[in-house]
Amino acid sequence: MKQVLTMRSYTYRLMNRYSDAANDLKTANLLHPNDKEIQFMIGSLEIRFNNLEEGEKHIDSALEFDDSYVDALEAKAFSEIKKGNYVEAKNICKRMINIEPTFALSYSNLGYIEAISGDTLTGIKNVRKAIEMSPKDPYMHKWLGEI
Question: Which pLDDT tens digit goes with each residue over 79-137?
């Protein structure tokens, strides 16, 4: 049942049916309250829509199950970026790189933080590294356009 709900939720997100996605994740959470992936998915959805406090609660829960869960760490870093806590976001990105050096989002987020913090050349270098690691992912290009 978990897989059906999470996959359907993902499909709803692709279709911009976010309330349906959230409802499926809430149901999945009721059935599997101690599942790090469900906690991450709920938290990520909340953070993307600026419900940062609620999102972080679920992300922190996912990280309690696995403190090296890079997807959850990325969502936490993104939340910190949205709040303007660049030092904390940068620390999280560096931690992600130590855990999983091939996780492109780590470099993309780190590059953005570096660039807006005044180290534009290093920032661009890290965003380009992310693009090289995952060239077909449009998200990797997102920060380059904002630097």
Answer: 999 999 999 999 999 999 999 999 999 999 999 999 999 999 999 999 999 999 999 88
Q: Compute the Cα dihedral for 70, 23, 54, 117 and give only its sign.
A: positive
Number of H helices, E strands in the chain: 9, 0
Domains parsed from the chain with CATH numbers? 1-84 (1.25.40.10), 102-147 (no CATH)
Global confidence as pTM: 0.86
Q: Are 123 and 111 spatial neighbours (Cβ–Cβ below 8 Å)?
A: yes
- Number of other residues whose CB lies within 10 A of the CB of residue 15: 10
| DSSP code, position 51 | -
